[in-house]
Design brief:
Elements: H1 2-6, H2 10-13, H3 15-29, H4 34-43, H5 45-55, H6 67-83, E1 89-93, H7 100-111, E2 119-125, H8 128-136, E3 138-139, H9 150-155, E4 156-159, E5 162-165, H10 167-170, E6 173-177, E7 192-196, H11 206-219, E8 220-227, H12 233-238, E9 241-243, E10 251-254, H13 263-270, H14 291-298, H15 308-316, H16 320-334, H17 338-350, H18 356-366, H19 371-383, H20 387-405
Parallel strand pairs: 1-2, 1-7, 2-6, 7-8
Antiparallel strand pairs: 3-5, 4-5, 8-10, 9-10
Helix pairs in contact: 4-5, 6-7, 14-16, 15-16, 15-17, 16-17, 17-18, 18-19, 19-20
């Protein structure tokens, strides 16, 4: 039912969460048989929404992953505004959860000197409860993470219930309930200049991922920019988008000519599981480049075949085979390296390989305070339904960051 109605792949959030939710709802309703509850879900819209609210993942915070926000403001200042001096830039946050992302966009734009009259931010989510929290504009400490919290002093007022958002930011966002996969989904604008759709596709099965990207393509202006999550960029490239080649922004735009499938597509078709975050037993990989990647590294110049920075640029462009080849060759010829293992983990994670976890672990074995590896393992455990482990790695990452600054 979750897959049919909202496209949710149960494995992406863990079947145990769904099972536990079903048991709790049955107990609350004094039902003894699973079939009775299934029939109720099919016939009662109210119970369906109660169930849905309990299984939706609403983990978010302000300025989560800062690069997309800084990239957005730079693109608007340097490219959009000079060519649209009298226009109003249109931005969509989908899904917007409890509002932290669209409000972060508003704060970033205002901090850059772009007045609210020059932009409109639309925010859509399937959760009525999350939207109610967003529109209320009151947030607790969990929505503020990291050390760069100057925005909280500028745009929030401390009240008894938490932090109250400044009306100038709150009024710059329009919220609306909606399901992008629904036949009656109607956008608030005919076309958006920038769309944030981060960490939604990872919860879908493959056909639903493709359908969602087709719809997003229709929502995006011809010269617009799409921001996705790190693990979602290869799928967007396969579906006709082109990487903006902006490091760590995971941004792409439409290609009107729809080129032949990229190397990301070829990699997925040869053996990847697309971007499904299903928990799998990690496979052991030695440091010898795979035959598939050996052929890719041969084509590289002598100067670039061991250059990790070059590998990072290739990964940002969606050229995953070549990036992996450089990392593997680097490890083979120059020995164990935390940075090489970390970058190889990024590439494998973007390709949907569970072995990415092994790479991040090896990076931490060599360098226990490797901040990026700690952070990615935290996100990986969070994505795979292990919040306790995720919190442990987030704490380690925070300590490592503080240590590096001292």
């Amino acid at each position: 039912m979750l897959r049919e109605k909202i496209g949710l792949d149960a494995a992406s959030i863990g079947s145990s969460l769904i099972e536990r939710t079903v048991r709790l709802r049955m107990k609350h309703l004094n039902l003894r048989k699973g079939r009775e509850y299934q029939e109720l879900l099919s016939s009662s819209e109210g119970e369906w929404h109660e169930f849905l609210e309990s299984v939706l993942v609403n983990e978010t915070w302000f300025f989560r992953d800062s690069h997309p926000f800084t990239t957005l403001t730079r693109l608007i200042l340097e490219e959009w505004l000079p060519t649209h001096p009298t226009g109003k830039v249109k931005i969509l946050s989908l899904p917007c959860s409890s509002g932290e992302e669209p409000y972060s966009i508003g704060m970033a734009l205002l901090d850059t000197g772009i007045c609210p009259e020059k932009y409109q931010i639309d925010a859509v989510d399937i959760s009525d409860r999350a939207l109610a929290r967003a529109e209320r504009g009151i947030f607790r400490k969990n929505s503020f993470r990291g050390k760069q919290l100057g925005f909280r002093d500028r745009y929030f007022q401390v009240i008894r219930e938490g932090y109250l958002l400044d009306p100038i930011i709150k009024n710059s966002v329009r919220f609306r309930a909606g399901n992008i996969l629904s036949a009656d989904f109607i956008p608030l604008q005919p076309a958006y200049d920038y769309i944030f759709c981060r960490n939604l596709l990872i919860y879908f099965d493959r056909p639903t991922q493709e359908k969602a990207l087709r719809i997003i393509g229709k929502l995006l202006a011809a010269d617009g920019m799409l921001f996705v999550g790190p693990a979602e960029l290869p799928l967007a490239l396969e579906q006709g988008f082109i990487s903006a080649q902006i490091p760590m922004a995971f941004a792409c735009h439409k290609d009107p000519n729809r080129p032949v499938p990229s190397e990301a597509s070829a990699f997925i078709k040869r053996g990847g599981r697309a971007l499904s975050p299903t928990v799998a037993r990690p496979r052991n990989h030695n440091r010898r480049p795979s035959r598939q990647n050996q052929s890719a590294v041969v084509a590289l110049s002598k100067d670039s075949r061991l250059d990790l920075e070059h590998a990072r640029r290739l990964a940002d462009a969606g050229r995953l085979l070549e990036a992996a080849a450089i990392c593997e060759a680097h490890l083979q010829e120059r020995g164990a390296s935390a940075q090489a293992y970390y970058l190889l983990g990024l590439v494998r994670d973007a390709s949907g390989e569970a072995s990415a976890v092994d790479c991040f672990r090896k990076a931490l074995y060599l360098e226990p305070d490797h901040y990026e590896s700690l952070l990615h393992l935290a996100f990986w455990w969070e994505k795979n339904g292990q919040p306790a482990r995720a919190r442990t790695f987030k704490s380690r990452a925070q300590r490592a960051k503080i240590k590096s600054l001292n």
